[in-house]
């Protein structure tokens, strides 16, 4: 990475860190939400589905502002967390939170589609033999939907790497602290002779995004073949 300046490499490294923790923290809730939407019938199901997909519809800046209102140091959740020593606003952890919120719908959708492709009769057969719900999920459902979970992880990671609007609104654009790959590109485009740096970062963003998309398509095809052969 000698062709990257220290500032550019710092932005890439921070983006990888943010995307990793955003994806990892979202995964348990993403699997649970996807399973609930795919298998359970309960009051408010459509409301939950709408809330999950809301970040895809809202302008990212609006999502970032809502996060700032809720998790800022003066927000209802932010003030409580601050007392426990957890601060999101204008920290890299806040960038991870914003990225997780924006990537969550893509993760849930990929996993949900994979769960819906599994024949419920397979789960019901295990349940009639006395297996508990969690055991049925762990031994029957999870192995069948694992490629879909992998696809969801890949899409969420790629989305988190490219998140801009919510991040810059919630945690600003502080070099070395909250300046991720997209915000660094934006910054370099605002300064004289910054086009070369911006172009190098754009190349990295394109490579990561294309690799994620190709890998996601490969996993999706495996899911289709597995379901067809079941």
The total of beta strands comes to 0
Unreliable segments of 5+ consecutive residues: none
As a percent range, the share of strand residues is under 5%
The N- and C-terminal alpha carbons lie at a distance of: 45 Å
Structural class: mainly alpha
Structure, explained:
This protein is an all-alpha fold. It has helices at residues 6-39, 45-57, 60-71, 76-83, 92-116, 120-128, 133-162, 165-171, 181-189, 195-229. The radius of gyration is 20 Å and the shape is globular. The model has no long low-confidence stretch (mean pLDDT 87).
Descriptive keywords:
230 residues; mainly alpha; 10 helices; 79% helix
Can you give me a brief rundown of this structure?
This protein is an all-alpha fold and 230 residues long.
Topology summary:
Elements: H1 6-39, H2 45-57, H3 60-71, H4 76-83, H5 92-116, H6 120-128, H7 133-162, H8 165-171, H9 181-189, H10 195-229
Helix pairs in contact: 1-5, 1-7, 2-5, 3-8, 5-7, 5-8, 6-7, 7-10, 9-10
């Amino acid at each position: 990475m000698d062709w990257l300046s220290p500032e550019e490499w710092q932005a890439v490294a921070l983006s990888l860190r943010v995307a990793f923790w955003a994806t990892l923290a979202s995964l348990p809730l993403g699997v649970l939400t996807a399973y609930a939407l795919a298998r359970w019938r309960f009051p408010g199901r459509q409301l939950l589905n709408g809330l999950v997909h809301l970040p895809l519809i809202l302008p990212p800046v609006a999502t970032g502002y809502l996060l700032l209102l809720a998790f800022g140091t003066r927000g209802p959740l932010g003030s409580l967390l601050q007392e426990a020593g957890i601060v999101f606003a204008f920290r890299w952890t806040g960038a991870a939170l914003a990225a997780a919120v924006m990537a969550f719908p893509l993760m849930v959708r990929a996993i949900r589609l994979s769960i819906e492709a599994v024949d419920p009769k397979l789960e019901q057969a295990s349940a009639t033999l006395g297996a508990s719900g969690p055991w049925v999920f762990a031994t029957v459902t999870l192995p069948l939907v694992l490629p879909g979970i992998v696809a969801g992880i890949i899409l969420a990671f790629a989305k988190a790497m490219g998140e801009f609007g919510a991040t810059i609104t919630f945690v600003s654009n502080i070099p070395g602290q909250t300046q991720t790959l997209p915000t660094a590109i934006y910054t370099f485009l605002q300064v004289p002779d910054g086009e070369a740096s911006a172009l190098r970062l754009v190349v990295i963003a394109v490579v990561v995004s294309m690799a994620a998309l190709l890998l996601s398509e490969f996993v999706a095809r495996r899911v289709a073949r597995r379901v067809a052969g079941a």
